[in-house]
What we know:
With 533 residues, this protein is an alpha+beta fold. An 8-stranded antiparallel beta sheet has the order 18-17-23-14-15-22-19-20. Strands 27-24-26-25-29-30-28-31 form an 8-stranded antiparallel beta sheet, covered by helices on one side. Strands 2-3-1-4-5-11-6 form a 7-stranded mixed beta sheet, sandwiched between helices. Residues 47-62, 65-71 and 196-200 have low confidence and may be disordered.
Amino acid sequence: xxxxxxxxxxxxxxxxIISHPDAGKTTLTEKFLLYGGAxxxxxxxxxxxxxxxxxxxxxxIEKQRGISVSSSVMQFNYSGYCINILDTPGxxxxxxxxxxxxxxxDSAVMVIDASKGVENQTxxxxxxxxxxxxxxxxxxxxxxRESRNPFDLLDQIENELGINTYPxxxxxxxxxxxxxxxDREKKxxxxxTANGGHxxxxxxxxxxxxxxxxDILGEENYRNIVDDVELLDGASExxxxxxxxxxxxxxxxxxxxxxxxxxxxxxxxFLQMTPPPLARISSDGEIDPFNERFSAFVFKxxxxxxxxxxxxxxxxxxxxxxxxxxxxxxxxxxNKKMRLSQPQQLMAQEREIIQEAYAGDIIGVFDPGIFSIGxxxxxPGDKFKYHGIPTFAPEHFARVSCTDTxxxxxxxxxxxxxxxxxxxxxxxxxxxxxxxxxxxVVGMLQFEVLEYRLKNEYNVxxxxxxxxxxxxxxxxxxxxxxxxxxxxxxSDTKIVQDFKNNYLLLFTSEWNIRWALEKNEKLKLSEFxxxxx
Length: 533
Ligand code: G4P
């Protein structure tokens, strides 16, 4: 292959960053961008907190969406690498969105607040990260504040997320007595000096056997770190890069993003350990990213990012080769050759029309309504499809209608748009004659986002009646039944259709699922839809 294309792909690193709200993801991202020279001062990525935290969490998410051009994907250069950061929403109700974003990433960085550990509302989000089987790096942040015991933090990550951990460095004290970290590879102390309120940091290296160390760290800290290191060296996992690459072992770093402590060493080590663009599975087998022929898949669609323009942008991850502006590509699902309109990349806050991009990069293109999540684009002549992005089974259901019947057209337009973005799923009741739709979501906050978006983007108010269904099953063999109404089901089981006209059953309990299967011998149910997204 052309050596310049090869070296461009080799220097790509594409990762997703996930965290609990407030754990410090924005601050850490900002510091990365500062090191990369992509921005000049902190506070540029997002506005001040007071402006951002409007009413509640979902408003915050909505806000993030509003400026998501700047915050959802960012590219910058650092130390010869070309880095793509994918931002994810920090709430488990959006874990499906996070999963899709992870599909576009080759590794993930998990930011954890040292005083809180793994928090309830992100447990599911982090598990989704482990499910994807890509390398996961943990940054335990806010060591300049009182933290939990670091051994407990690691135990918690291991037990709750089912992943082993390897501390790359180890904290010395925390909060007011935070003195720095011990670098286990260098076997050296990097000390932290809070600088007169300016929150700057002085890093200095010193050997653990250095006789002056007890003076620098204080007697107690010194004794603790010597004990901790002995314990770590004796008890913790060996560092195994293979296990890291498979997502079985997470390298853990301690630091403080706000004060800049430990951020650059983290970035440097992370970049060495994280892989260049990984091969992807397609209907033609594995596609090598270094294959010169361009290919990509759509992992995210977002409409109305800019209300004034009513634009819709499809985000795609380039999986192989080089993309060049104005050359023809092939949209496999649409079976059509096309030119991608206004291909753009995001550099901190700037949207920039690009001339070229490489495997590993994320580009956004203007979408006139032809793309769906999971679609594949190739070089004309290639017809393979990348493996689809799975849909999560909704866990909450509500009957939704618009309050003003004259606005029904707007309502359906808005709902369909949001369905295409993959933010909700909709179902209809085939035999009931109801005009409303049943909306299914993975997390309750998605209902609020739906309400908010319909009102703000489509000027439609909705009525929502929550339903008590919790389980959904697709009927795999609906064609075997003359009339599905004749199935023997409990009275609280509902037959619905999805937007591809597949039949499904909604259940209020697992017991009812078993009942349906026992009473209807021929009935075949599956937990995931046959329909590809
Ligand atoms: P998020 O994107 O994960 O939601 O978190 P974000 O970076 O916005 O950080 C949340 C709060 O935590 C911010 O404070 C931020 O300054 C603070 N923070 C981040 N990293 C550290 C750290 O290493 N140490 C300490 N002590 N604080 C940290 P805020 O007061 O809520 O907002 P702001 O007004 O500073 O923006």
